[in-house]
Amino acid sequence: MGGIIRFLNTPITTVQGSSLTPVDLLITVGIVLLFYILARVGARQFQNRLEGRLKLTATNRRLLRSTVFLSILFAGVYTSLSSLGINLSIFLVPLGALSIGLGLGLQNLASNYIAGLVLMTEGTIRDGDVIEVDGIRGTVQEMSLRTTVVKTFSNTEVIVPNSLMVSQRLDNWTKSDQILRIESQIGVAYGTDISVVHEILHSHIAAHSAVLSKPEPRTFLVEFADSALLFRIQYWIDDPSQRLSSLSEILEAIYCGLQERGVSIPFPQRDVWLKGDSFGQNGPLVSTANSDL
């Protein structure tokens, strides 16, 4: 036992003029572990007691939990180093030089963390929002300080750097509410009764279960096109996941309704004139067309 005690109190190195013994190392490790446990417990207690009282988004709750955990853990590291008698001020100059080097080499990483902090504090996006950025469209699954996980409508999970969210145009379809406007165009033949078309379009749109009654669905005659009268339909839904399915079902119903009322949907046509050559009626024929075909 005496040998163990002598070993634990035997200096193994010197730090800033102070002897460092195995006992000092054990105490330092113990302090770090103690503060690590306190950090885990503190973050859990914050989640259980304070999150229910604070009306925060899931993203901001994760940010606050991480802040509580890292703050307590940093205090533990600082206390453990101070217990060894280390003057931490001597590390300021080397840390400053190191931070410059890291800043030059890790600019993209740092920009992602800063962008994530900006997004979380401003509440630009939240978990469950439907967004579109840089051609990526989907639902926000999870947001961290560095990246955001977006689940696309193709059921793939895309990990998007937060710096992209800040530098590119970001469309948040559900920031204030879940209501989306859906639009499409339909062409009918010239000579069709316009009031009949409005009636068919409006009735089949309003009959769909996903379509909201307020705002009311709308139909417009928007263009006299080359081959058709073009109508635009607009309606609103409160479930972004039904964006494509509702449009497909409504267009199918409108197509059947137009057929039942004898309204035709035209398609582009071109006339081709065949003229005989100068060698006579039985000579070879040359086809010409005044069109873009």
From TrEMBL:
Record SUPFAM superfamilies: Mechanosensitive channel protein MscS (YggB), C-terminal domain, Mechanosensitive channel protein MscS (YggB), transmembrane region, Sm-like ribonucleoproteins
Q: Which Gene3D superfamilies match?
A: 1.10.287.1260, 2.30.30.60, 3.30.70.100
GO BP: any one term: transmembrane transport
User: Where is this protein localized, as stated in its record?
Assistant: Cell membrane
Q: What is its main location?
A: membrane
Where does the sequence pass through the membrane? Answer: 25-43, 63-81, 87-106
Q: Where would I find the Mechanosensitive ion channel MscS C-terminal domain in this sequence?
A: 183-265
For whether the record's keyword set contains tRNA-binding, the answer is no
Which part of the chain is the Mechanosensitive ion channel MscS domain?
108-175
Would the keyword Transmembrane helix turn up in this protein's UniProt record? yes
Domain Mechanosensitive ion channel transmembrane helices 2/3, residue spans: 72-107
Please provide the record's keywords in A-Z order.
Answer: Cell membrane, Membrane, Transmembrane, Transmembrane helix
Instruction: Pull one GO CC term from this UniProt entry.
Output: plasma membrane
Membrane topology is: Multi-pass membrane protein
Q: Which family does it belong to?
A: Belongs to the MscS (TC 1.A.23) family.
User: Would you tell me the protein name for this molecule?
Assistant: Mechanosensitive ion channel
